[in-house]
Amino acid sequence: MLDLDRYFLEFEAETARLAELARDADVQQPIPTCPGWTFEQLVGHVGRGHRWAAEIVRRRLPEPIPMGEVVVPAGPDERGEWLIEGARMLADAVRDTGPEQQVWTWRKDRSAGFWLRRMLHDEVVHRFDAELALGIEGDLAADLAADGVSDMLDTAAILSRPDIGVSSAFAALAGTGESLRFVATDADHEWLVTRSPAGVTWRQGHDAADVTVRGSACRLLLLLNRRLPVGTAGVEIVGDRAILDHWWSNSEF
């Protein structure tokens, strides 16, 4: 994980980048990496998530609350400011409540700071959604991308467990010992993932695996979030590609 100050800094920066895209885009622009979504729906999803998480943190809630409906402002400048306002609400809630304050989350980490990190990585991926839709080649610092890979694998570990009672595509990632190794070529990170009947587990490690996937941390992040296809340029696959294909096909939110 990165330090807390870095999460605050990157969260503000990512929101500013998405807000700038939101100001200039046609709200009816389709988002190919989120089938069925328009730019307006993408912006609404991000802004609503920020406000929902901010409410959980601000009220120090021990249980989840329904995610309220939102109306994305029609004007381009207002859209950008609306996004920035929601992000500021969450950042202020974490600061005021204290990042170690216990609140509801859907992971083992019950700290208010969890929501800052989680919403940052959610926004990173959706900023790439917006850029891909607009034909813009985005970028991301390698260490932040690597942290996003870890965050995504934490999500897979939770959603693949058969005992949580949540219906999701990730449940198909439970396996019989199949292993995947993801190697970041621009950061000192390797993730060894194992599929067992109890779900997915992962750890940092250099052990051999059934399939090894090498690429920049950013490309690995986008691949794991299904924003790049298996076989995309700049990603090397060694071993049983079918295991990676299966992962990609069964990791959709």
From TrEMBL:
PANTHER family, per database record: CONSERVED PROTEIN
Gene Ontology molecular function: metal ion binding
Record protein name field: TIGR03083 family protein
Residue stretches making up the MDMPI C-terminal domain: 143-245
Species in which this protein is naturally found: Actinoplanes regularis
Entry's Gene Ontology cellular component terms: plasma membrane
Coiled-coil ranges (or none): none
Domain Mycothiol-dependent maleylpyruvate isomerase metal-binding: 11-130
